[in-house]
């Protein structure tokens, strides 16, 4: 079989395949020998090593068992997660999994409509803009848009979660995309406010120093009533599970809600912005 030399620096997928081949050869195994140990076909192993096929979580776990890498820093499963979530901030994949089973979701967002409330068009414009800036690749942009849809779909379950959303006024004042994109996004917010399991509020500019948060914040109440919070900086995200650390944030969130506009007032402001009236 002709050996296709991959450049490990070409892509994370190429680095994965090149490392798999290197470790296999270090053991003195052929692709057939490794495939047998992994319970995969040699054709599948060859496709991964040559970068023709994307690895999966199951394949990565099998490789780790065969090569003795389970639970180590060099595990292929860990590398797979980095490939899959390469365009996401640290901590977000774990938060996303917790959000999908939360009984209550409280969120506060600044400057942009939060993902749970975004239309596909709004999400696509944001992702495309990040690609133009060179912040992410087109593949990572597609992933971001897909994740928005996945997060929203996860809320449609037998026991609907309670969703409390407080948006800084900048979220609805900042235009994203053209008029059609924003009009559809405003309609989505109005529809969200009408749901029986949701509360939508706007934190107006007039709150001034009474606004307790400067950065976006998400607080989850899990089915067992455990609390978790998630916040992001420009470089990383952090999921906090210690109740002692989350409780003060929950208290501040309730204070935020008390100072923000009521849902009726918030919808009225959205409609005003939608119509272009001051």
Cα-based radius of gyration, to the nearest Å: 23 Å
Number of domains: 2
Strand percentage: 5-15%
Shape type? elongated
Give the % helix: 40-55%
Annotation, overall tally of beta strands: 6
Q: What is the assembly state of the chains in this entry?
A: single chain
Give start-end ranges of low-pLDDT stretches. Answer: none
Lay out the secondary structure.
Layout: H1 12-26, H2 31-38, H3 42-49, H4 57-67, H5 76-84, H6 92-99, E1 104-109, H7 120-132, H8 138-154, E2 162-168, H9 170-173, H10 179-193, E3 198-203, E4 217-221, E5 227-232, E6 237-240, H11 243-259, H12 263-275
Parallel strand pairs: 1-2, 2-3
Antiparallel strand pairs: 1-4, 4-5, 5-6
Brief summary:
With about 280 residues, the protein is α/β, with parallel strands linked by helices. The protein has helices at about 10-25, 30-40, 40-50, 55-65, 75-85, 90-100, 120-130, 140-155, 170-175, 180-195, 245-260, 265-275, and strands at about 105-110, 160-170, 200-205, 215-220, 225-230, 235-240.
Core attributes:
Endonuclease, Chain A; elongated; 434 Repressor (Amino-terminal Domain); single chain; 2 domains
Could you characterize the architecture of this molecule?
- It is a single chain.
- The protein is of the alpha/beta class and 278 residues long.
- The chain has 2 domains: 12-84, 434 Repressor (Amino-terminal Domain), CATH 1.10.260.40; 92-117 and 156-275, Endonuclease Chain A (Endonuclease, Chain A, 2-Layer Sandwich).
- It has helices spanning 12-26, 31-38, 42-49, 57-67, 76-84, 92-99, 120-132, 138-154, 170-173, 179-193, 243-259, 263-275, and strands at residues 104-109, 162-168, 198-203, 217-221, 227-232, 237-240.
- Strands 3-2-1-4-5-6 form a 6-stranded mixed beta sheet, with helices on both faces.
- Helix 1 runs antiparallel to helix 5 (76-84) and helix 7 runs antiparallel to helix 8 (138-154).
């Amino acid at each position: 079989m002709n050996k296709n030399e991959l450049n490990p620096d070409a892509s994370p997928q190429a680095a994965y395949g090149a490392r798999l081949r290197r470790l296999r050869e270090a053991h003195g195994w052929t692709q057939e020998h490794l495939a047998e140990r992994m319970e995969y076909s040699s054709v599948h192993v060859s496709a991964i090593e040559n970068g023709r096929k994307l690895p999966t979580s199951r394949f990565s776990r099998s490789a780790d068992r065969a090569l003795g890498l389970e639970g180590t820093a060099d595990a292929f499963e860990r590398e797979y997660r980095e490939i899959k979530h390469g365009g996401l901030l640290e901590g977000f994949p774990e938060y996303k999994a917790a959000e999908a089973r939360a009984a209550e979701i409280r969120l506060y967002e600044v400057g942009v409509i939060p993902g749970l409330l975004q239309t596909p068009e709004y999400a696509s414009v944001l992702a495309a803009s990040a690609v133009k800036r060179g912040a992410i690749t087109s593949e990572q942009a597609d992933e971001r848009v897909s994740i928005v849809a996945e997060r929203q779909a996860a809320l449609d379950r037998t026991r609907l979660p309670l969703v409390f959303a407080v948006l800084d006024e900048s979220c609805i004042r900042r235009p994203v995309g053209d008029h059609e994109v924003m009009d559809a996004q405003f309609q989505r917010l109005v529809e969200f406010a009408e749901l029986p399991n949701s509360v939508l509020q706007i934190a107006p500019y007039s709150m001034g120093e009474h606004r307790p948060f400067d950065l976006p914040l998400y607080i989850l109440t899990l089915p067992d009533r455990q609390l978790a919070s998630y916040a992001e900086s420009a470089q990383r995200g952090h999921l906090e599970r210690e109740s002692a650390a989350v409780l003060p944030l929950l208290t501040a969130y309730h204070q935020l809600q008390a100072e923000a506009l009521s849902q009726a007032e918030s919808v009225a402001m959205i409609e005003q912005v939608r119509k272009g009236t001051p």
